[in-house]
Structure formats: structure tokens, C-alpha cells
Amino acid sequence: MFNKVLIANRGEIALRVLRACKELGISTVAVHSTADADAMHVRLADESVCIGPPPARDSYLNIPSVLAACEITGADAVHPGYGFLSENARFADILAAHRIAFIGPSAEHIRIMGDKIEAKRTAARLGIPVVPGSEGAVDNDIEAMRIAKEIGFPVLVKAAAGGGGRGMKVAQTPDELPMAMSTARAEARSAFGDDQLYIEKYLGKPRHIEIQVLGDGRGDAVHLGERDCSLQRRHQKIWEEAPSPALNDEARGRIGAIVADAIAKLGYAGVGTVEFLYENGEFYFIEMNTRLQVEHPVTEMITGIDLVNEQLRVASGSPLSMSQDDISFNGHAVECRINAEDPATFTPSPGTIRYFHPPGGLGVRVDSAIYHGYNIPPHYDSLIGKLIVHGRNRVECMMRLRRALDEFVVDGVRSTVPLFRRLVDDVDIANGMYNIHWLEKYLSRSQDMTE
Ligand code: ADP
């Protein structure tokens, strides 16, 4: 096992990783920007190194600074968390060249999955069902039209380098296709510096269902069931649950086995998430994330498996601590992503936390790095905490979630807690009847009512 792990991240995920390291007796190094000198991850780590000014590109994304912090502290491994350098293949290569372990998959696997065209091709080759669409990149409008007509409208134009829902445009009819192509291309070029596009069938009312996997890098892999992340605003997840209210054991077992088998064949190391859209009983692969996800706790709550502990084990060369038969799913879990944002307009609300009272009690977990008097800097994303609730079944989970949200107090900044209080009382949510468009419709209805 490692002696010292440097955590190349901030906020709640830095704490999450730190906790797993502490439980294994591994020393921890926090890195931080000047804006985060008072952050909780810095306070709780054994050592800390300031790696630059507030903008992420000058600190958390600055590879030479992170590497220097490793050298100074003698860290033998880096955990990248999510976001920042977590899916940066060059970073993984550079660490390898310096004989520092990257707690994640190989640079090659990060590269394949980071290019969505290549990812889709690889998934299909490994027997994973994919969304019908172009075989590879689509270079011009004539080819785009031919493919779109073949798969049938509506279609979705997507960026090969896409992420965060950017570079994605729907064309409902042939007339709309040239415009969708040029807008997506411009957006992809400015956001990712790569304007390769591909085309997919646009699914009308799917759910977003993703499978958590874990591989040892040597041909052994397991799946840890699914998470339903259909409640999204602007393609960003805000509420995730496991198991999905839409899957039965047969569907879960079927897709889980396909994915675990593919991950084993790939020789994938560590945790990963294979994302699907699910419509009319069919799964369609959209992408794979080669890192720990924000929503990983719901899987931990229903399996009792510590995913960061498993990442550390695999990265240090140990085999998986379980086989597929050892994994069972117990009860139901929901995660709410609490942001420092106005709950109606979603405008970020940085500032000083005047009072913070997180809920507690049986089945309640709060992953957060804020505290009384903490000043939320304006430079990073607005996630201030995750409320994760577990119950023996979905009904108990929802009742407990309602109770936990009632107890949740964040004063001094606006937060999205009130939005979740409303969602938990909604009849569609109670019945698990929602798809990826539900939340946007709900929010525009609430907007109309207040106007
Ligand atoms: P990103 O990497 O930008 O997040 P994804 O491919 O993961 O892009 O897609 C993000 C979201 O966009 C999905 O969760 C879903 O809501 C929507 N989406 C993606 N592909 C399709 C599709 N073929 N049809 C309908 N919606 C889609």
C-alpha cells in the first residue's frame, strides 16, 4: 500500500479521499490555491502545499505545480478526485515517468474514453449496446444528412471531445441539420479546441442510467449495479438514486453482466462508470467516465463497499477485495447535490457561511467541506455538499430524505436545499416517474407560476 497520497483536488471530494486514506493509515498531502488556504481539506491533511493563485488553470490544473508538490513532500501516489486532472491522460503519463502512481486507470484507457467517437467504437467492439449513429467523425453536411436520414430524425450532433453537455445540438428535421452542425462545431472548437463531430439518434424520453464498475487491471472486473441520474438541469445531474425505479432485477443483471465482461476484457484498472440512456427497455451507451463520480456515494450506501478504498487497493497492485457473488444490493439511496446557488434562478451565491447545521441520524450521510465562517470562493463550481440518504426501501428513503432536508440549515449564502424540499414532495418523484427532460419541464412550470 502507499505511504503518502497527494490529493490533487479540493472541496468535498478532497475530504472524501482523505478519509479513505486515513482509514488505511496512509499519510495525506493537500494541495490548494491561495483562495483555499482556509479550506477544510487543507486543515485535515497531514501536510499541505500551496500550488498557485485562485484560477484553476494556475493551480489545480497546473501539472508542473502539482508535480513539484509531489516531489517536495515525497508522495508516492496522486488521487485526482473528479474534474480537474482526473481525466487528463498526459498527467497520468507524466506521473508514470516520475514513478508516482496515478490512482486511476491507464493513460491509454483515459485517452480512449476521452474521445467519445473512439469510446463508442470500443464499447461496440466489446459487446456494449450503443446509440445508433455515425460510425466515426462526420466531416461535412452532405455526409451528415445521409447518416441522419438513415437513422431517422430527430438526431443529435455531438462533439467528440464533449463534456458537461457542451457542443451538443438537436436537429428535429432535415432543415435544422446544417445549423445544428455549424453551432455544435463552433461550440466544440471554442470549448475543447477540437471540432470533430458525430451524429446520434436523438432519444425522446430516455432515462440516464449508469453502471458502476471496478476492475483490477488484469482481467478481473465486477459491476456494482446502477445509478439513475435522470434528474438533470442543462445536462447536469442534481439528484441521483440507486437502484433505478425503472429497472427490474432481470434488466439490471443483464446490463451489469455485459458491462463487467467488457471492462474485464479491456483490462481496465480502478473505478469507472459506463453511462447509458434507457428507453423502452433498451440500453444505449453514451460514454464512459474513467474516474470516481460525484454520485458514487449512492452505490456505497446500497453495497457497503468503499469505492475510494478499492481505488487505492487496485492502484497499489492488490486484487479486488470481492467477486461478483459477494456483491449484494441493500435498500435504496438518494443523493441531492446541494449548490450555493439561488434555488429558483441557479445564480451562484458565493460568500460567507454564517451558520451550518447538517442533518444526521440513521441512514443520513453528508459529504461536505463547508463549516461555520467558511468563505465560499467564487472561482470554482458551486457544489457545497451532498446529502445522501439510505432507507430499507424507496418509501423509507424518501421519508428520511424529507426529514433530513427539513433539518438542513445553510445560512449566509443561498442554497438549493429549498428546491429539493419541493422535489421530495412531488408526486412524479414519489412514483419514480421521470426521464431526462422532467426537471427542465418542472422548472419552467414553476417559473410560470411565479411570474
Ligand atoms: P457530456 O459528456 O457532455 O455530459 P453525454 O454524452 O454524457 O455528454 O450526454 C449528457 C446528457 O445529454 C445525457 O445524460 C442526456 O441527458 C443527453 N443526451 C446525450 N446523448 C443523447 C441522445 N442520443 N439522445 C437524447 N439525449 C441525449
Description:
The chain is built from 15 helices and 20 strands. Helix 4 (89-97) packs antiparallel against helix 5. It folds into 3 domains: 4-103, Rossmann fold (3-Layer(aba) Sandwich), CATH 3.40.50.20; 132-201, ATP-grasp fold, A domain (Dna Ligase, domain 1), CATH 3.30.1490; 207-450, ATP-grasp fold, B domain (D-amino Acid Aminotransferase, Chain A, domain 1, 2-Layer Sandwich), CATH 3.30.470.20. 49% of the residues are buried. The strands form 5 sheets. It has an 8-stranded antiparallel β-sheet with strand order 13-12-9-10-11-14-19-17, sandwiched between helices. The chain has a 5-stranded parallel β-sheet with strand order 3-2-1-4-5. With 451 residues, the chain is an alpha+beta fold. The radius of gyration is 22 Å and the shape is globular. The model has no long low-confidence stretch (mean pLDDT 97). The structure holds adenosine-5'-diphosphate.
Q: Which compounds are bound in this model?
A: adenosine-5'-diphosphate
Query: Overall mean pLDDT score?
Result: 97
**What's the helix count?**
15
With strands numbered from the N-terminus, the spatial order across the biggest sheet is: 13-12-9-10-11-14-19-17
- Residue share in β-strands: 25-35%
Q: What descriptive keywords fit this protein?
A:
globular; binds adenosine-5'-diphosphate; 451 residues; Dna Ligase, domain 1; D-amino Acid Aminotransferase, Chain A, domain 1; eight-stranded antiparallel beta sheet; alpha+beta
Short description:
It contains 15 helices and 20 strands.
